[in-house]
């Protein structure tokens, strides 16, 4: 493919002097095998069902085209980094060109899967922070698959530190902030990750068994196990099944913890970048510029909190939140002692986050928390009663649901105990939740506005919810059920001057359901 200059809209000043780079040719040993594996269902189906007709040749042709496209991608892909943008060209018959301005680059992740590590290669994922929907890398991401480890580190430093290759100078060594302790693996069974794996496996097995009309309990050992379970008392079967499930979930959780967080290291580079490395079989390297850091979040799910554990996550612009993001990209500390998580949060923020005294909410918030929890159980029981009245369900489900009332009261009380907020230095701190408690500290000078929300029931109780929007993480964080006067004062302190016109009118305090935000 000719190294033609890019079109005028994406051309960069001085780009003609910047050399082009190609993907590592060792990828040609991997890509055809991967494409062949992906095409196996089509190939096998064509060979088995196409005997005596032309379908087998169509399957072989489709497989050959898939492999050819993969080889063409490896041979024709080339990229270069200019003073203003990164450019990428690929394609033989159908050519593709992309250019991303360097000032829009938010993340540069270095990923080494087993297929890469076999030949000492890495994949570089360059993201702009746009959260486009759909599968695979979209407009928000450019993937260079694959380059050498040295080239991946050069691109990471070059793109994140906003330097050109000609002016790049050796950097002082990075400083260690945190690294994994092998003793922390004891927190793995309380992350419930193993339970998710077991549920996925059981769901997949059930689906295929149902589609194939296959009864697993009629097969060898499973048949004997089922017969034995039916012969013994029900309570013993339940206890043994629960114990077996607990052991299986614990083993899978420990295995997942080791695979994900082996050799976890959080370091700070002299250029003001947090660098995260982790992984055993698949290694991942993530860089977060501290200029784009908006805060941190301490997550304490109930099982993990019961054993004194927590994990620390970055709230940063450009990092995706939830599924598909990890994707763990902003994980500053894996499940570890809660004190260690708060210590790392303080180190990252530069504030004494661990010892911030949180303001407790009033008893009216306690009443509201318990009322909401109890009402949810009563609503469930009423729905089950209606189904029983219609002879859709038996009587016992709605009666059993009422047994949850004491637990609902306990959950409501625990949610109240978790409520708290504070303002310390540059940060607004808020804590809430019971089953999934979270403590968040966000920078006040990076908030995109402030919202004071008051529902009908909150108005009757004299409470408000203060919402702090931020262009990072979940997008906004809430201070739940705070007294009306204290909430308005908190909102005014969090973003000084923004609410002043709404708080004073003729010497009286003005309260309203939703105050406007600042763009």
TrEMBL record:
Keyword list, A-Z: Membrane, Transmembrane, Transmembrane helix
Highest taxon listed in the record's lineage: Bacteria
Keyword Transmembrane helix set for record: yes
Transmembrane intervals: 55-75, 190-209, 234-259, 370-390, 396-413
Domain YdbS-like PH: 76-158, 416-486
Secreted in keyword set: no
Name of the protein: Membrane protein
């Amino acid at each position: 493919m000719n190294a033609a200059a890019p079109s005028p809209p994406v051309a960069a000043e001085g780009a003609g002097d910047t050399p082009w780079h190609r993907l590592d040719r060792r990828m040609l040993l991997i890509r055809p095998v991967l494409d062949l594996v992906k095409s196996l269902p089509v190939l096998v189906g064509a060979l088995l069902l196409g005997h005596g007709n032309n379908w087998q040749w169509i399957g072989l042709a489709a497989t050959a085209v898939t492999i050819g496209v993969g080889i063409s991608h490896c041979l024709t892909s080339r990229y270069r980094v200019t003073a203003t943008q990164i450019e990428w060209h690929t394609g033989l018959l159908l050519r593709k060109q992309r250019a991303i301005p360097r000032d829009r680059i938010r993340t540069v992740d270095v990923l080494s899967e087993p297929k890469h590590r076999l030949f000492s290669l890495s994949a570089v994922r360059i993201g702009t922070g746009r959260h486009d929907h759909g599968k695979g890398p979209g407009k928000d991401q450019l993937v260079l698959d694959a380059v050498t480890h040295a080239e991946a580190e050069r691109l990471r430093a070059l793109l994140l530190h906003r330097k050109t290759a000609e002016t790049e100078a050796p950097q002082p060594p990075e400083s260690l902030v945190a690294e994994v302790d092998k003793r922390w693996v004891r927190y793995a069974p309380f992350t419930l990750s193993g339970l998710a794996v077991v549920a996925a496996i059981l769901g997949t097995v059930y689906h295929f068994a149902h589609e194939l009309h296959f009864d697993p309990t009629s097969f060898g050992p499973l048949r004997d196990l089922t017969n034995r379970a039916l012969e013994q008392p029900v309570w013993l079967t339940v206890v043994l099944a629960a114990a077996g499930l607990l052991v299986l979930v614990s083993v899978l959780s420990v295995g997942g913890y080791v695979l994900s967080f082996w050799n976890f290291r959080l370091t700070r580079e002299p250029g003001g970048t947090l660098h995260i490395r982790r992984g055993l079989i698949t290694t991942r390297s993530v860089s977060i510029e501290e200029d784009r850091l908006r805060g941190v979040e301490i997550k304490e799910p109930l099982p993990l909190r019961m054993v004194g554990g927590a994990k620390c996550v970055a709230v940063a612009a450009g990092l995706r939140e939830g599924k598909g993001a990890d994707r763990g990209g902003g994980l500053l500390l894996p499940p570890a002692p809660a004190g260690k998580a708060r210590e790392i949060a303080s180190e990252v923020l530069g504030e004494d986050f661990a010892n911030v005294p949180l303001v407790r909410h009033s008893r009216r918030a306690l009443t509201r928390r318990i009322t909401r929890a109890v009402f949810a159980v009563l609503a469930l029981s009423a729905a089950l009663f209606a189904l029983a009245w219609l002879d859709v369900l038996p009587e016992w489900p709605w009666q059993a649901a009422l047994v949850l009332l004491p637990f609902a009261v306990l959950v409501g009380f625990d949610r109240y105990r978790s409520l708290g907020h504070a303002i310390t230095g540059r940060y607004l701190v808020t804590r809430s939740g019971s089953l999934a408690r979270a403590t968040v500290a966000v920078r006040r000078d990076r908030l995109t506005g402030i919202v004071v929300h008051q529902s009908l029931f909150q108005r009757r109780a004299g409470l408000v919810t203060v919402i702090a929007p931020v262009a990072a993480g979940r997008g906004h964080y809430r201070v739940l059920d705070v007294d009306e006067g204290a909430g308005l004062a908190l909102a005014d302190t969090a973003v000084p001057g923004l609410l002043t016109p709404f708080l004073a009118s003729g010497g009286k305090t003005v309260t309203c359901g939703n105050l406007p935000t600042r763009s």
